[in-house]
Amino acid sequence: MKYSTAAIVAALVPSAYGHYFWNRLIVNGVETGDNEFVRKTTRPTAYNPIKWKNVRDNSTPDLDDIRCNQGAFSSAASTKTKEVAPGDNVGFKLAVGATMQHPGPALAYLSKAPSTASTYRGDGEWVKIWETGVCDTSKDFTKDAWCTWDKDRVSFDLPKDLPNGEYLLRIEHIGLHGAHDGQSEFYPSCAQIKVVGGTDGGSLGSGIKLPGGYKQTDPSFNFSLWNGYKPYPMPGGPMYAGVQGGEGSGNDTAPAPTAAPTVSAPATTAAPTTLQTATQEPGNTAPTSTPAPPPSAQVPGTGAPAPAPAPAPVPNCPNAPRRKSKRSRKAKKAKKAQLN
């Protein structure tokens, strides 16, 4: 049987159409095997997107397919479950060398299994733990302004306070190039993970149901890229409170700053409030003079105001010559005349 060159290229390189699918889980920088921990779709053309309009393979976001892709639950029992720890860096890689050649956000969700991940259909709540959107507003909003543009993978940190248990970890890229016409494209996949080394009990908080959490009328999926940059409304409900930033996180998902530890310095090490003018010689480890504190400064260690500096004393000059008054000289001269 003969195949045309075009057909072979189309089969092997789905990125020629801009379409793709996820098949590898990454944990702390180490890639796992193809569909070793990621559920495999049964779609005839694995890289086809899920859409509301111009539907492919009868998959729409209103069906269970939106969770982990079409037919993914059928491979759950044969898919391994990867042990991870809270705070681990995890990620997903696209299959067959594809890259994300569509503009749009990427998002990650967790859904806790009641028992094991391999028997879980994903019909519980999905909690968003990561998202990334635009990285550089000065670039082309229809292409490389987006953090995921031309990337073959994404990575992010699991929440550090993630409770122990088995989960479905869902990754999704949304292509927005046709969103102005109601043709957003969804590319989801799910990995099976087991969290160990965390806390027992607790919940992830509120999330969304899939299907149900995405509506065809949502502004996120009817968004035009073609009139210049504008803020993109991220879908998927609230972010999990314990989320940590990761690679590719752009301006839409800047991680909260980490507070520096508070250190109480001894009172005697406080910097002087007056300017020190003494110079330090090379090799010396201390200044040659210590500035006096201003009148409002406090005496170190006491909390009491420092006494105001005493005024400079008037110089005492006992040997300075004194000029006698004119009246005194006349009186002495008259007394001398009487004696004579």
UniProtKB/TrEMBL annotation:
GO process terms (BP): cellulose catabolic process
Record flagged with keyword Chloroplast: no
Key words, A-Z: Carbohydrate metabolism, Cellulose degradation, Disulfide bond, Hydrolase, Polysaccharide degradation, Secreted, Signal
Statement: the UniProt record of this protein carries the keyword Signal: yes
Species, as recorded: Microdochium trichocladiopsis
Cofactor: Cu(2+)
Stretches with biased composition (Basic residues): 321-340
CDD domains reported in the protein's UniProt record: LPMO_AA9
EC number: 1.14.99.56
The protein's name in its UniProt record: lytic cellulose monooxygenase (C4-dehydrogenating)
GO terms for cellular component: extracellular region
Region ranges (Disordered): 240-340
